[in-house]
Write a structure and sequence with these properties.
This protein is of the alpha/beta class. It folds into two domains: 259 residues, 3-Layer(aba) Sandwich (Rossmann fold); 174 residues, MOFRL domain (glycerate kinase, domain 1), CATH 3.40.1480. 40% of the residues lie in helices and 19% in strands. It contains 18 helices and 16 strands. Strands 10, 11, 12, 13, 14, 15 and 16 form a seven-stranded mixed beta sheet that branches. A six-stranded parallel beta sheet has the order 6-5-4-7-8-9, sandwiched between helices. A hairpin with a 3-residue loop joins strand 2 and strand 3. Helix 2 runs parallel beside helix 3 and helix 6 runs antiparallel to helix 7. The longest helix has 15 residues. The protein is globular, with a radius of gyration of 23 Å.
Length: 451
C-alpha cells in the first residue's frame, strides 16, 4: 500500500488548487501572482474564469477560492465560469459549469465542449478580464474542427499520431492545424482584451504553444515542419487530406486574421507547475515511504521514444547500481510508445515491463541476483490515468517477477501484445489512484532498497 499512499500524498501536494492559493493573492481588489503580476480588478467590468484540461476543476476551485477571499470584490463582478475536463475528473461548483469530455481521443462530447467554450468566450466584453487555467489534455477535450476537416477526420489523424509514436509536441503541432480553438484560437474568439493564463505544463519543453495545443498562445508554424511530421506518422489517406490544406490560400488568410486580432490583446502566461517542480516534491516525500540513503535525478525531462528513454536511464544507472548504499533514481517526462498489439496499458505500465525485462530477465547491468533482489521499478501517471486506462501505472520487483514467471505469466508475450496493464493486474502490481486533479507528465522511480 505504500506506493498508493506515496502517490496520493504527492498528488495532494502538487494539486493546482493548493498551488494557486499559495501563489495568488487578493488584497482588497488587488490581485497578485507571486512577485510577477499585480492588477486592480476594479479596472475591469467583470472577471470570467475559464479552465481547460485534466486539472481544470482543481484550477477553477483555486481561482474562486482566491477571488472570493475579499469582501471588497463585488459578487456581481464574478459571472459563472466554465471548466472543461476529462470524464470522471469533474467536481461540481456553484461558481462554474463543468463539462466532461473524452481523452485521449476526441469524440462528440469534445465537440460539444468546444462549442460551449466558443459561446462562453464570445459573451465577454472588451473591458472584461479573462482568467484562464490550462492543463494537459485540452487538445482532445475541446475541439472545434476547421471547416476543411470533419470530426472523424480530425479524430483519426490525432489517433494515428498517438499510436504511431509521435511525441506530444509533434502531435499537437498537427492538431493545431485542424482546429479553430488551438494555437491562439481561443484568444482570437473573445472580445476581451486582457487575458491572464495560468498553465500546468505537461510537455517536457514547457512550450506554451504545445500545452493543450496553445489555445491562448499563438506560434507561427512552418509548413515544411508540418509536412515532415505528417509524412512520418500519418497514413497516406490522412496525408492526402492534410497536406493539400497546408498550401491553401484560405489557411494563410485565417492565419493573417488571427495574427491581426491577437496583436490588439494583452495576454500574460505563467507556468505554475511542471515536471521539474513535481520531481522536486516527489524527492522530498519519497524517504518517508521508501527510506533510502541517496536521491538522484536523471536531470532533463525525458522526451524520447520509450526505447531511447530507457537506454538513457540505464546508462545513468550503470554507476549508481555499483554503490553499496540504498538509493532512488527519479526521472520525469513522457516516452511515447508505438502500439502494435491490442492489449491494455499506457506509457507507465509499458515502462515498468520493458525496464523489468532489461534489468531482471536480460540483466543488462550484469548484477548478481543478490543485488537484483534489492531493485524496484515504479512508474506513475501524475494525472492518475495511464493512457486510455483507469490505472495510474504500477511497480515490479525481482521477486514478484520470478513468482509471475513460475505461475506461467510470460512477460515478453505481454509486451509483444502491448498488454502491460493486464500483466501488472494479474500479478497484483498495478496502481489505481483515481483522478489526481493535476497533470505534469509521468514520474518514474528506480529504487535500490537496503535489503
Amino acid at each position: 500500500m505504500r506506493l498508493e499512499q506515496f502517490a496520493q500524498k504527492l498528488f495532494n501536494t502538487i494539486n493546482p488548487k493548493e498551488v494557486i492559493q499559495q501563489k495568488c493573492n487578493l488584497q482588497d481588489t488587488i490581485f497578485s501572482y507571486s512577485d510577477q503580476l499585480q492588477l486592480d480588478l476594479n479596472n475591469y467590468q467583470r472577471i470570467f474564469v475559464l479552465s481547460l484540461g485534466k486539472a481544470a476543476c482543481a484550477m477553477a476551485q483555486g481561482f474562486y477560492q482566491v477571488l472570493n477571499s475579499s469582501p471588497k470584490l463585488a459578487a456581481e463582478k464574478l459571472p459563472k465560469g466554465l471548466a472543461v475536463t476529462k470524464h470522471g475528473h469533474g467536481s461540481e461548483s456553484p461558481y462554474y459549469q463543468v463539462i466532461e469530455a473524452s481523452h485521449p481521443y476526441c469524440d462528440n462530447d469534445s465537440l460539444k465542449a468546444g462549442q460551449s467554450i466558443k459561446s462562453f468566450l464570445e459573451q465577454l466584453a472588451p473591458d472584461d478580464l479573462l482568467l484562464v487555467g490550462i492543463s494537459g489534455g485540452g487538445s482532445a477535450l475541446a475541439v472545434l474542427p476547421h471547416p476543411h476537416f470533419n470530426l472523424e477526420e480530425k479524430t483519426n489523424i490525432g489517433a494515428s499520431l498517438l499510436k504511431g509514436g509521435a511525441t506530444i509536441e509533434e502531435t499537437n503541432k498537427i492538431r493545431s492545424e485542424l482546429s479553430l480553438l488551438k494555437n491562439g484560437g481561443m484568444a482570437s474568439l473573445t472580445p476581451a482584451n486582457k487575458i491572464i493564463s495560468f498553465v500546468i505544463s505537461d510537455v517536457p519543453s514547457n512550450d506554451l504553444s504545445i500545452i493543450s495545443s496553445g489555445p491562448f498562445f499563438y506560434q507561427k508554424r512552418e509548413v515544411e515542419e508540418l509536412k515532415e511530421i505528417a509524412q512520418r506518422f500519418l497514413a497516406i489517406d490522412a496525408q492526402s487530406k492534410l497536406l493539400p490544406y497546408l498550401q491553401l490560400p484560405e489557411r494563410q488568410e485565417a492565419i493573417a486574421h488571427k495574427e491581426q486580432v491577437l496583436r490588439n490583446k494583452e495576454i500574460s502566461h505563467f507556468i505554475i507547475s511542471d515536471s521539474k517542480s513535481m520531481q522536486e516534491e516527489a524527492a522530498k516525500l519519497l524517504p518517508a515511504y521508501y527510506p533510502v540513503e541517496q536521491l538522484s535525478f536523471f536531470g532533463p525531462v525525458i522526451n524520447e521514444t520509450i526505447e531511447t528513454g530507457i537506454q538513457k536511464i540505464l546508462n545513468s544507472l550503470r554507476a549508481l547500481v555499483r554503490q553499496e548504499s540504498s538509493w532512488a533514481f527519479i526521472s520525469g517526462g513522457e516516452m511515447p510508445i508505438t502500439v502494435k498489439g491490442d492489449g491494455k496499458g499506457g506509457r507507465n505500465t509499458e515502462f515498468v515491463l520493458q525496464m523489468s525485462k532489461l534489468l531482471f530477465l536480460d540483466n543488462v547491468l550484469q548484477l548478481p541476483s543478490s543485488e537484483l533482489k534489492k531493485l524496484e521499478i515504479i512508474s506513475v501517471a501524475t494525472d492518475g490515468g495511464d493512457g486510455p486506462t483507469e490505472h495510474a501505472g504500477g511497480r515490479l520487483n525481482f521477486k514478484r517477477l520470478q513468482e509471475a514467471t513460475m505461475n506461467g505469466f510470460d512477460l515478453e508475450d505481454y509486451l509483444k501484445r502491448n498488454d502491460s496493464l493486464s500483466f501488472l493486474q494479474k500479478t497484483g502490481s498495478a496502481l489505481q489512484t483515481g483522478p489526481s486533479g493535476t497533470n505534469v507528465m509521468d514520474l518514474r522511480i528506480i529504487i535500490k532498497h537496503k535489503i
